[in-house]
Write a structure and sequence with these properties.
The chain has 73 residues and is an all-alpha fold. The protein has helices spanning 8-35, 48-63. The longest helix is centred in the N-terminal third of the chain and has 28 residues, at 8-35. The N and C termini lie far apart (72 Å).
C-alpha cells in the first residue's frame, strides 16, 4: 500500500491548529481553577436601609399573624 505524502504546509497548518486548541484548553483550565472556590457561601450583609425594611416587614408580619420567615427570601 502506497502512503500519500502530506504537504509541509498542510502539516504546519494542522500543527498550528492543534497547538491553538491545546493552548486554549490550558488557558480555560487555569481560568476555571482560579475561579473555583472563590464564591462566598454567605450572602453579603444588607445595607442599613434594607435591614430596617426587612425588620419592619417582619414586625408587620407578626402583627398580621403571618409566618415568621416573612418576607420570603
Amino acid at each position: 500500500m502506497k502512503r500519500r505524502a502530506v504537504h509541509a504546509t498542510t502539516r504546519a497548518r494542522i500543527r498550528r491548529a492543534l497547538t491553538d486548541w491545546a493552548l486554549a484548553a490550558l488557558v480555560a483550565t487555569f481560568i476555571l481553577a482560579a475561579t473555583i472556590g472563590t464564591d462566598d457561601a454567605h450572602e453579603a450583609a444588607p445595607s442599613p436601609a434594607v435591614a430596617d425594611a426587612i425588620a419592619g416587614a417582619r414586625l408587620a408580619a407578626r402583627e398580621r399573624d403571618l409566618p415568621e420567615h416573612w418576607p420570603p427570601r
